[in-house]
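fwd from M.: "can u put these together and see what the complex looks like"

so here's what she sent:
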Amino acid sequence: MRHAAKSASRFLRRFWRGLREWCGDAAYESYLRSKGRRSSSCRTLSPAEFYVEQLNRRYSKPNRCC
Amino acid sequence: MKRIFSIVGWILVAALGARALGSIALHRGEPLNATWFVVAAVCCYMVAYRLYSAFVAAKVLTLDDTRATPCERHDDGRDFVPTNKWVLFGHHFAAIAGPGPLVGPTLAAQFGYLPGTLWLIAGAAFAGCVQDFVILFCSIRRDGKSIGQMAREEVSERGGFIAQLAVLAIMTILLAVIGLVVVNALKSSPWATFTLAMTIPIALLLGLYLRFVRPGRVLEASVMGVALVLFVVVAGQWVADSPFWSRVFTLSGVALASAIIAYGFAASALPVWLLLAPRDYLSAFIKAGAIFSLAAGILFVRPQVLMPPLTRFIDGTGPVFAGKIFPFCFITIACGAISGFHSLISSGTTPKMILRESHARFIGYGAMLLESFVGVMAMVAACAMPPGVYFAINSPPSIVGGAGDAAAATISGWGYPLQAQTMTDLAHKVGEITLWNRAGGAPSLAVGMAQIFSNTIGGERLLSIWYHFAIMFEALFILTVLDAGTRVGRFMVQDLGARFWKPFGRTGWMPGVLLSSAIIVALWGYFLYQGVVDPLGGINSLWPLFGISNQLLAAVALVVATTILMKMGRLKWIWVTLLPMAWLVTITMTASYQKIFDANPRIGFLAYAKALAAQIAAGKIPTESLAETQRLIFNQRLDAGVTGVLAAMILVLIVEALVHWYAILSRRKESALHESPYIATCWAADYSGASHGDD
């Protein structure tokens, strides 16, 4: 029983994380993690700056199909 | 032992699929249960995925998981982001699934359920999925390069130029035709018009919230937005019941087309965070919810399919659009079976986020199978209503003789019994003024969906709410494609203009932004207007044009794929892409020829122009309609010209490819691949993405 509850909770956690990644909610966290991995000298963008910059890039090429 | 169980299991799946397909193909007389469609499609997809995609992955492409993918080599947290394969599957599917797989099968249902269903399943398994998978693989091996760049590098400069032109052509025609679908869905419907209009202030509200209040918190904003959208669907009923507001939101086709054109311009010129992106978030959630609910509803209700397997209209005299089953069934159903537009997504964002080469099979091949399933569900929804009702909704007045008893008699005369009162009652039940002559596919699909939903929850009492929910769902994500497409088109125009005048290419320079937005909107807006005023309903001429341009792009993608396979030394496997390419070229060229030169004015653009000119010469056109008729003649000639250019582009591309292939095979030209150099991956075998790998 406890094992099943643990599995269900793990599944729900993963599902929640997947949903956040899918809809773009976790994009800024991904960016910060990536920035941490690369020791880049570029300034870290604020959440608002990153949000606008990311949208401008995404909607400048075909991203929705017929 | 495990292997034996597996083999027996797959034999059972294949046998069940064959049995279901047999039932669909050979069933005559009594209505057929829709469960057979679901079983046939799912079993065929499972077998195709297990066997054919595995063969393509192992033998043709030889996927290599030891090789670092672009997101590992260039990880920047922006474009190149290592992404879990399930999440990326969701991203890719949300990007490729547009209105095409819903509208195309609904229109093609005029031939009966059989041709469209078979093409959806077989076309996806052997052509569409292969195209998406192979192009995704090719782009992964080239750091996420686009189809245009790959065509230029691997085929020729001219091939790349044709790919770019094809993208612009498909974009223009696509935006016009989907705009027309929305116009026909909202025409004379205050409830639907109000609901869709209200999604604009809701999106603006979300845009401001996401920009200034909680930057980037997409999930919570989307939940609020979806709740508001569902509220306005219900509130639309009060608007429809109010004499004043009902009048305000009852718009003609031309007024709606003008509103959509103005909206496209605004969405393209305004900052992307304000209107376009928040609408996209709303649309993504509602699209996912509606598609999932439709699948669940079909399984729960198990409706009877009332449309016969083949109708009399396979002879080309169909009221929805004219033309024989070959080639027009394969042109009408483009997305859902094979769509060239997908190659832009497969060589766009997805290859930059994929973790391993082996994921390309699941994402490229698998997501297209799911899109094909959406097409099969749309076919079921359209065919589950009485055929008479289907033809009454989808036929233009010039074919059925308007509405009411005369039109019902025409449709009954075709062998599909219908009483005018049935249409009046149905319109009343779904909360519409009329359902006659609502061509475009969206209203009939909404009726089919609403009947399935209301049989699941709420019964007839909720039919009107479900109908307007379905219309809102279709229109919302059609407009999302329209505004995103207009913006991308604007960038293409700016890019092109910059060759002649540098400042025009600056994306932040307001005069350039406004002018390029106006140019792209004028391009598709003209075709949209032309479709709205066309007495044959517009869909008759615009949808085949869209199908031809979409399949042209698919042919470009398959030429690139075949060339790359040839250069990789996989000569004995090139039939995997060569056969779908040959099929596409055949149907596209046949359809183009017939659309230009056929003697039937309902099929041939030139014949229609000639017939109209003859009517003017014979004095049969009243003076007040003279200018409009002359404009119609011009439009038909223009459509013929556009079709001719598209066909010429295919021919040039094929000749170009043949010359190139001959040079490679006869070793007159070095067959240099333009792949990125091999770099071994540093990721552990069980690494599953940035955040997923953290646990």
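replying to her w this: The longest helix of chain B spans residues 626-665.
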